[in-house]
Amino acid sequence: MTPKQRWIILGGLLSATLVAGYLVEDEPAPEKSKRKGSVASKSAASSPAEGRRAGAKERTTELAAAPLNFPEPAPAETAEEGKTEEGGKLIDPFRNKSWYVAPPPPKLPKPTAPPLPFQYLGKLNEEGETRVFLNHQGKHIIAKVGDVINGTYSVEEISGGQMTFLYQPLNEKQVLGIGSDK
User: Fold this and answer.
1) CA-to-CA distance for 84 and 101, rounded, in angstroms?
2) Distances (CA, A) of 136 to 117, 119, 153
3) Is the pTM for the entire model greater than 0.70?
4) What is the pLDDT of residue 24?
5) CA angle (64 as vertex; 58, 65 as ends), nearest 5
6) Would you call 154 exposed, middle or buried from its count of C-beta atoms within 10 A (0-12, 13-18, 19+)?
């Protein structure tokens, strides 16, 4: 294709576009113009072709000069708990919104008995009953099975080189090593 043929095709397409734009029927302009004499009344008096040209020029100047029409703002909150006239509650679309959800509080660990406050000093086997000598806060205590010490510890069992205590507030058993049965 030669450059001359390209220019002929482009010129034909351009002229066809201009003719099509000129012949297309425009929608009638709304009659909301605040100026004296609307576009429709001025263009109706002259020929249709001149009316189109004049109407297009006036519409462009009218659109450029006309103020923008914005929707009316929503009514402000009334004194009655922030409700509008329709009775609906206003929601501020620009309010601060946090999507943070606090994690549930950690579960508290099950309470446990404190470490045994006793120190083993010795034991005595007499008439088939074993008595154990303990040191508790600087005091010497002689304990046997069934004894309650300070109202918190009871002696459950003494056998096999171990002394078993029951911590009464939590009903938890604790063991103190006391050496072999020899």
Assistant:
1) 31
2) 6, 7, 12
3) no
4) 83
5) 85
6) middle
pLDDT digits (tens, 9 = 90+) for 72-124: 776 655 444 445 555 677 888 888 888 889 999 999 999 999 999 999 999 99
**φ/ψ (deg, to 5) at 15:** -65, -35
Number of C-beta neighbours around residue 113 at 10 A? 17
Give the pLDDT confidence score for residue 40 in this predicted structure.
47
Q: Which residue has the tokens 């351009």?
A: 14
Q: How far is CA 164 from the centre of its chain?
A: 53
Say how many CA atoms lie within 13 Å of 38 toward its Cβ. 10
At residue 180, what is the residue type?
A: S
Q: How far apart are CA 3 and CA 162, in angstroms?
A: 112
**Cα dihedral 85→91→94→95 (10° resolution):** 130
| 132 and 144 Cβ atoms separated by less than 8 Å | yes
Distances from the Cα of 74 to the Cα of 70, 81, 86, 130, angstroms: 12, 16, 11, 91
CB atoms under 10 Å from CB of 180, counted, come to 7
Q: What three-state secondary structure class fits 115? A: coil
